[in-house]
Amino acid sequence: MAKNIWAGVGVIVLVLVIIGAVIYSNQNPPLVSLTTPVDTSTQTSSSQTVTKTVTSPQPSSPNVVTSSSAIPTDTTVVVSGTVTPNGVPTNYWFEYGTSSNLGLKTITQLIGSGYLAIPSPGYITGLTKDTTYYFHLVAQNEFGKVIGSQFSFQTTHGVSIPTGSTPTVRTSTVSDISRYGATLNGNVTPNRAATSYWFEYGTSKNFGFITSLQDVGNGTANVTASTQVSNLNPLTTYYYRLNAQNQFGTIVGSTFYFKTIGPAAPTSPSATTVSATNIKGVTSTLRATVNPNGAQTQYWFEFSTDSQLATSLQTSAQTSAGAGIANVSVSADATSLSTSTTYYFRVVTQNDLGTVRGSILSFKTKNN
């Protein structure tokens, strides 16, 4: 009998654990990367091919958490909370009043569209001193409106009203664009209140991804804001903007865009035989241009007295041309040649995606 009872208890516990796991999973979907967009590109090295896949969560209604902390004066208060926009542009505001029915609200502020919980401050003025007020944080996007928990505070008397104002924000031109990354730039003026900034970015004007928040102090001078983003898709247009906030509110900058460098995926290299220079009796310098096209590439030269390069073939040493996407000027010395002899030559390039040979050119060595 005792064994049966304990077996029944074990089943109940197991069921509760499974239910709890399902609830937690629904409320906290697994995120592979909170600041990295989907990337299913294939990167090729000289030894292996690696496919990167980063899965984005599905957009949904925001998550809202009201903070119980409040910093009141006799006629003002600084309240706060966090909002997780969950992938689409989201607005937030605070509702407040002298009873739990509230009845008043702050201005609506745009918090962006990332998948991270973002601080959402509010500054309320025009209050009555020595009075209890109730408040909660509200956020809304195209998937719904969510209301946070309700808390209260009491205004005081004899406490100085905080100085400062919302930050000034300006998005500026991106720099250091590559196939998989870029540096996002802008400027922030804190306006005498402790200020943080972050960038939103994504493949549409809804963005969907954000960088981590960075502090810029509480001064009055214009401060440079800059953040590198990586794991982008090549040959893709990205939109971005700079946002900043302090205790007085959140400000979003203008939207800019840029395009990452191609090709969309690594390909076989390109090769162009150019010329033979420094021709002497037994040596010459062979020249060409090579484009690795995004994959680690080797190059070398073939040369021979056979116009088809089928017999008596000689080669230079294999040399790395890197894994870039631009034309690279390359060269190699052909040695141990015969004097007064016509030689034929071409450049050869190779990566994991193919071997490409340039056109055959010729030169004639001198007689000394």
Could you explain the architecture of this structure?
- With 368 residues, the chain is mainly beta.
- The chain has two domains: 63-259, Immunoglobulin-like (Sandwich), CATH 2.60.40; 270-364, Sandwich (Immunoglobulin-like), CATH 2.60.40.
- The protein contains one helix and 30 strands.
- The chain has one helix at 2-27; strands spanning 42-44, 49-51, 63-72, 77-84, 90-97, 104-105, 109-112, 118-119, 122-124, 132-141, 144-147, 151-154, 168-175, 182-189, 195-202, 209-210, 214-217, 223-229, 237-246, 249-252, 256-259, 270-277, 284-291, 297-304, 314-315, 319-322, 328-334, 342-351, 354-357, 361-364.
- The longest helix is centred in the N-terminal third of the chain and has 26 residues, at 2-27.
- The protein starts with a helix and ends with a strand.
- The relative contact order is 0.12.
Which characteristics define this entry?
six-stranded antiparallel sheet; 368 residues; Immunoglobulin-like; rod-shaped; disordered N terminus; 46% strand; mainly beta
